[in-house]
Amino acid sequence: MSIRIQPFGAVLVLVFALPAWAQSTEGVGAMYRCPGNDYNNTITASEAEKLHCKKVENASVTVIQSAKTGASAASAAPPARPIPAVAEAMSPADSAALRTRASNARRSLEGRLKSEEGRLSALEKEFNGGEPERHIDEFDFQKYLDRVARMRSAISRKQIEIAELRREIEKLPTQ
Q1: More confident residue, 64 or 86
Q2: 121 occurs within a structural domain
Q3: How far apart are CA 62 and CA 39, in angstroms?
Q4: Is the pTM of the predicted complex or chain greater than 0.90?
Q5: Do 98 and 165 belong to one domain?
């Protein structure tokens, strides 16, 4: 029984030691990191030295194939499906639903636009052309200047919001 264990043990040692020995050998098969984070395992140690590559030791590297670029990608790409000149006809129910949704969106945006314009006019009225009335608690002139600066920025933000709402309304289809 001890005779059978010794050959079996030798086989086990070879099974586990052989892959480790194959990985530890120098030369082709070693993983190198070249400038530009280019990983390569198909070059020799002398080529890696010429390219200023560094050997990566005991690091697991996952290789993900990237999409082909350039002329090879154009030739390898499958032909694109032709786009029909005329879009498929929508059912009357679908087009009615789209029109309803667009009109609801337009109505909502127009309501928001009117309220924002009202807020802007109130801010501009209070701003009084850059010279708003001083409050009682603004005995320090710097507090007054800070409030004027805040009002200017609030007015410019409202103007931007109003411009955005108008652009959104212009995107919607008319009836």
Answers
A1: 64
A2: yes
A3: 10
A4: no
A5: yes
Single-letter residue type at 165? L
Q: Which amino acid, 94? A: D
pLDDT one-digit tens code per residue, 108-147:
999 999 999 999 999 999 999 989 999 888 888 999 999 9
> Looking at the structure, do residues 111 and 164 belong to the same domain, yes or no?
yes
| Residue 153 scores a pLDDT above 60 | yes
At 107, list the tokens. Answer: 């109505």
As a dihedral over the C-alpha atoms of residue 33, residue 37, residue 41, residue 45, rounded to 10 degrees, the angle is -30
37 and 104 belong to one structural domain: no
Same domain, 103 and 166: yes
Q: Report CA-CA distances (Å) from 31 to 17, 41, 59.
A: 20, 4, 9
What are the pLDDT digits (tens) for 157-169?
A: 999 999 999 999 9
Residue 85 lies in a domain: no
Q: Which residue spans within 35-175 are E strands per DSSP?
A: 38-40, 54-55
d(CA 173, CA 104): 11
CA distance 95 to 106: 16
What is the distance of C-alpha 85 from the center of its chain?
A: 33
Whether residue 143 sits in one domain with residue 97:
yes
The per-residue pLDDT of the chain, averaged, comes to 79
Secondary element (H or E) of residue 8: helix 2-24
Domain membership of residue 130 as a residue range = 92-171
- Considering its fold, how many domains does the chain have in total? 2
